[in-house]
Amino acid sequence: MRILDTYFPVVVTVAVFSALLIGFILADHHILSDIVEVDENILFWANDNHNQFIAKLMLQSGNFHLLIPFYGFLVFMTLFHDKMKFMQVLVFIVLYVVVCNGMIFTVNLLFAHLRPLYMETMAGSMQIKAVGIGKQFGCLPMSSSLAGIAYFSCLYFKRHYWPLKAMVVAWAIINLYTNLHSGWNYPHEILIGLVISLVIAHFTFKLYLYYLRRGKLTW
Fold first, then answer.
1. Cβ(171)–Cβ(146) below 8 Å
2. What is the rounded CA–CA span in Å between residue 4 and residue 209?
3. Which of 37, 64, 85, 183 has the most CB atoms at less than 10 Å from its CB?
4. pLDDT (average), residues 34-44
5. Rounded to an integer, what distance in angstroms lies between the CA atom of residue 38 and that of residue 32?
6. Over 51-80, what HEC string results?
7. Strand 137-138 to strand 113-114: parallel, antiparallel, or no bridges (unpaired)?
8. What string of H, E and C letters represents the secondary structure of 147-185?
9. Distance (Å, rounded) from C-alpha 203 to C-alpha 153?
10. In the chain, helix, strand, coil percent, each to 5?
């Protein structure tokens, strides 16, 4: 059972992407068009579903001056949680960030395309446009790594830290939704980035546990 639990994220990921691949191979043009249409409709819905407060929240959520104190606080809480293991867990968090961002960066290099808000066929229908922020070409959102950090935090902190875990999860959701709300990424790109980050975070945490047990694998 423990072995199944360990490889469950990999099994799910392989099954989902295999099913999608087979579906694209066997599907006719109309089915593919319907999938693309649903993807674009979700993008337009998120882009149009806003008010002044949400618009400001989306705009400021990725602000560099807000990210620093937020994650500084998270590091402080990690230190407060367990001073003896602080440096060890910090190394694995950094490892996760490097691997996850490296993989997403590589995917973006290989599959970069013109972002929705820069496409003439779509830009005219969008209400919120973040033109001028970042590169015109891309694929998966780099903020996907925030979801993995939230997942890692939920696994690491104990139950009575639930307000902190809820805050980190909410922060990740807001940042991912910002990419959709601003027309920066398609829904399927956010979903793929989310799956990648969660799987990497899962195995990074398992590697951290393995390090603590010094080879006594009890996954």
1. yes
2. 17
3. 183
4. 72
5. 10
6. CHHHHHHHHHHCCHHHHHHHHHHHHHHHHH
7. antiparallel
8. HHHHHHHHHHCCHHHHHHHHHHHHHHHHHHHHHHHCCCC
9. 13
10. 75, 0, 20
